[in-house]
Design a protein that fits this description.
The protein is 42% helix and 18% strand. By secondary structure, it is of the alpha+beta class. Strand 7 and strand 8 form a beta hairpin.
């Protein structure tokens, strides 16, 4: 409002009249804008709460996206002779493992060379171990140290390490191959007899040949080119580190508490989402009362939770098969009490985890499984181009437009007030002139007194 003194000439309370006119012009629009702002803000708050609840549930759903997430195997190994890993799918059982021989690579030692600075000849050295091979070109000027470095630096080297031992008798070029397994001992040959002392004349002790590992598993002999034995026990990898003095006992079992806890977390997570949707959609106080997106989400979630999953390979194809059901309030439950002769939800879940854990994992994590369906549904609403995200964008634009509407109203009211002031200024001056004329006439018409 402008600070003026309308009515100062006439004595009329024109400021109050102008204020009344401006107020009557502004109040309906301000009420409409405030109502719109409140409505948009409430809806925006409800959308934000809905998206947050969906994101929280998705975090729990993600914990079930791999069948392995339900399986935590417990491995107990009685000695340090071996180490064990599994892919999470190994069957429960107890095994006796006896490492009788470790796999090792081979060793070759050259003939005696005068010193490490001596040259030996020129040509090509060829290294073979099993199916592996590589060659190294040797120049006549290359001394023993240079030859060592060339062998070690060769890009095609399959795992041969060359070293020099300087003894009292002289220097020796020693080759060690990482290729293990019976029949894979290192052989070094040459195309020039001048290099025979570091190739064909190499010597090898009885313990320097490549050998395979020999392991007894429950009395059955297993031979391997390496100390890593994969799937000898199905889905298990054994790493032998030393020969056994006593057989190692391996026990494989499942920690069923993991799957049970995840199932309960899934139920609790969904029920938190359902509670959020119930509050948001409450007819009187809900921030998203009668919202079509909220109703659609409830319906689609319910379909996923009660329907069967396609392309399952076993008897389990729905949540009800593992004891998880939807109650009359639309929430999930694992019932503690059975109905009639039917098992309770807790009994069915425990049985499924104990006897059919793979199928439980498939129910959630398969291509058509519950996790895939829920993730796709939530993404449709919560992704960057999802329905709720777009609504947020539009609602924020509405809030910005309301601010612009307030600015436009302020501009219009100032213009309106200015127009009123011009009109009432003319009235003020006119009334002031009439009052001045009246005062003059009143004074002029006063009777004169006679002495």
């Amino acid at each position: 409002m402008n600070i003026t003194s309308a009515g100062i000439g006439s004595g009329l309370d024109l400021e109050s009249i102008i204020e009344a006119f401006v107020t009557s012009e502004s109040v309906p629009t301000e009420i409409r804008l405030e109502q719109k702002k409140e409505r948009v803000s409430i809806e925006l708050s409800g959308i934000g709460s809905f998206k947050s609840a969906l994101s929280s549930f998705q975090t729990i759903v993600d914990k079930l996206k791999s069948a392995d997430d339900l399986s935590e195997q417990v491995l107990a190994v009685s000695t340090d002779d071996i180490a064990i890993t599994t892919n999470g799918s190994a069957s429960n059982g107890s095994f006796s493992i006896d490492v009788q021989q470790l796999a090792q690579g081979s060793r070759l030692q050259s003939a005696t060379i005068t010193s490490s600075s001596s040259t030996v000849g020129n040509g090509t050295l060829t290294f073979n171990a099993g199916s592996e091979t590589f060659g190294v070109d040797i120049a006549a000027t290359d001394d023993l140290s240079t030859i060592r470095d060339k062998v070690n630096a060769e890009s095609a080297n399959f795992g041969v390490t060359a070293n020099i031992i300087n003894s009292d008798e002289g220097s020796y070029l020693v080759y060690k191959s990482a290729i293990s397994g019976d029949g894979n001992s290192l052989v070094v040959s040459t195309d020039n007899a001048s290099l025979d002392d570091i190739s064909t004349n190499n010597t090898q002790d009885a313990n320097d040949y490549a050998t395979s590992s020999i392991v007894l598993i429950d009395g059955l002999t297993v031979t391997s080119d390496t100390n890593e034995l994969k799937n000898v026990i199905e889905d298990v990898t054994i790493f032998a580190s030393q020969v056994s003095t006593t057989a190692t006992t391996l026990d494989i079992s499942q920690n069923q508490d993991v799957a049970n806890e995840l199932m309960h977390e899934f139920v609790d997570g969904y029920n938190a989402l359902a509670e959020n949707m119930l509050g948001l959609g409450a007819p009187k106080a809900g921030r998203l009362a009668f919202d079509p997106d909220l109703r659609s989400m409830k319906s689609q979630l319910n379909d996923i939770l009660i329907n069967s999953v396609d392309n399952m390979t076993g008897d389990i194809d729905s949540l009800s098969d593992i004891g998880i059901s939807v109650d009359r309030y639309g929430k999930l439950e694992i019932s503690a009490v059975g109905i009639g002769t039917l098992d309770s939800g807790e009994v069915k879940l425990s049985s499924a985890i104990e006897n059919d854990l793979g199928q439980v994992g498939e129910l959630f994590a398969s291509t058509d499984g519950i996790v895939s369906q829920l993730t796709s549904l939530i993404d449709n609403y919560n992704d960057s181009d999802g329905t709720l995200t777009k609504r947020q964008t539009y609602l924020n634009l509405d809030l910005s437009s309301i601010s612009d509407d307030y600015d436009d109203l302020e501009t219009r009211l100032r213009s309106y007030e200015e127009t009123l002031r011009k009109s009432f200024s003319f009235l003020d001056s006119t009334v002031a002139r009439y009052e001045a004329t009246g005062a003059w006439l009143e004074n002029a018409l006063q009777p004169t007194s006679k002495d």
